[in-house]
Amino acid sequence: MLPQVFKNWVDSQYKNPRGPVGKYIGEKMVRQHRIEVEWTINQLHMHPNATVLELGCGAGDALATILQQREDVTVIGLDRSKTVLASAEKRNATSIRTGRAHLMQGDVHQLKIDDTSIDHVFSVHTLYFWQDVATVLSEIERVLKPNGTFVITYCDGKGDMQWNGITDLINEQFIPEATKLGFQEVSVRCGPDSRDYRTVAINGRKSG
């Protein structure tokens, strides 16, 4: 029984990192997810002077990467974990002071962000934890500007193993809900393997 209890605790730390262990996991995810983070950023095709929102920003590595690449972009990072947000604040301290980066604690199901204020929304490895896909997509649609885009990156398997659950979620919930909300050009793209995990992203654009 104890091993399962321990596994459940570890899983909960990945979902919502807490304390010293959560801080360690946040930095571990920075190292583990570098390949898919860089690939996701390339999928954004950011507009000049864009405002970019990351859902589940973790320790802030993706935000820092964007800010290093683009001097004209402003980023907002949202995460439910105070622990990893503290790491993100430290990693992006200079950009926070100059107003190019903003961090907030919150829930992806209820974004405390103004309507039509965001150019691009992205997220890496949070889709598994969305309790209600329709609600999160509705919030993404609300905060995006007309013609704004989203990129949601996840894994659908490892090696020869296919994760049918996440594939079914995309086909049976995500794509139908995104279409219902009026998103255009909704498509699934395969990315680079990372630690033998198969990287995939679903992209879409809010109608103009």
Describe the protein's topology.
Blueprint: H1 2-15, H2 19-32, H3 34-44, E1 51-55, H4 61-69, E2 74-79, H5 82-91, H6 93-97, E3 101-105, E4 118-124, H7 133-143, E5 144-158, E6 161-162, H8 164-180, E7 184-194, E8 197-205
Helix pairs in contact: 3-4, 7-8
Please give a quick description of this structure.
The protein is an alpha/beta fold and 208 residues long. 44% of the residues lie in helices and 29% in strands.
Question: What this model shows, in words?
Answer:
The protein is an alpha/beta fold. The protein has one domain (2-205): Vaccinia Virus protein VP39 (Rossmann fold). The chain is 44% helix and 29% strand. Strands 1, 2, 3, 4, 5, 6, 7 and 8 form an 8-stranded mixed β-sheet that branches. Strand 7 (184-194) and strand 8 form a beta hairpin. Helix 3 crosses helix 4 (61-69) and helix 7 packs across helix 8 (164-180). The longest helix has 17 residues, at 164-180.
Please tag this protein with its features:
single chain; about 210 residues; alpha/beta; Rossmann fold; eight-stranded mixed beta sheet; about 45% helix; globular
